[in-house]
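Consider what follows.

. . .
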Amino acid sequence: MTEPLHPDGSPSGSNSANAAAATSAAPAGAILLIGDELLSGKIRDENGWFLAKMMRRRGIALVEIRTVSDRVEHIGEALGQLLAQAPLVFTSGGVGPTHDDRTLEAIAQATGRPLQRNAQIEGELRQHYKDRLTPEALTMADLPEGTVLRAGPGWPVLRLDVDQPQPARIYILPGVPGLLRAKVERLEHLPDELPQGEGWHLATVHSTLEEAKLAAMLEDILAQFPGVEIGSYPRWSREEDGSVRYHVRVTLEGPRSAAQRVELAREALRQALPPDTVIDDPTSA
């Protein structure tokens, strides 16, 4: 079974009912990826991965990554649901001049903000395209009312602050990975633009014990240390003689302020495991 990805780039694995407690104090964020090309597999997503890593680095708890089609109703419905979960949502894709670029229209409808021609964006477009400017290109200057332009000079980042279903901030980003990365990096350089949480403390244990036998031990550790998030991930590696070696990577995690508790949970797990099944990280050699 394919493992879901953790915002730090590692698989997220199985989580306890107490997992939310480990990140409850962290600012929450969500990602909305937009485009038929992502759903069809014609384009492999890079932006969700990049944004997830950025959030992880800043101590933002990523609650969901969702991918939807270019249809206005699909974008709007997904955006509304994500805004109900997180006060920070990044959208990626659908802001160009072609028929399938419907994100600005969808966000306008979903938030009850009419589209308005933005003079600054229009000026940027006219300067860029000059005599090649088309009516379709100018539609990129039609922004939901109240959109704030951030991270200039040059083509800005689009930010929309909303009050419903909760006070929230939407960052409207392009789908081209290089452009999105550049815009997010500019945002990160603006003081107080993006939230900064305390971050997480991560500890690991590696064992040759099978997951089926490990499961009960992990449940015991979860009961002893509520709020510590635990995941287990089977690994297979090939030895020099061609044989396959099996081990399980167990991660224990919590807010940095609870680092000591996480380390105590790791030590409790190490003590519970048969000594001959505890190994060093095979990937660190």
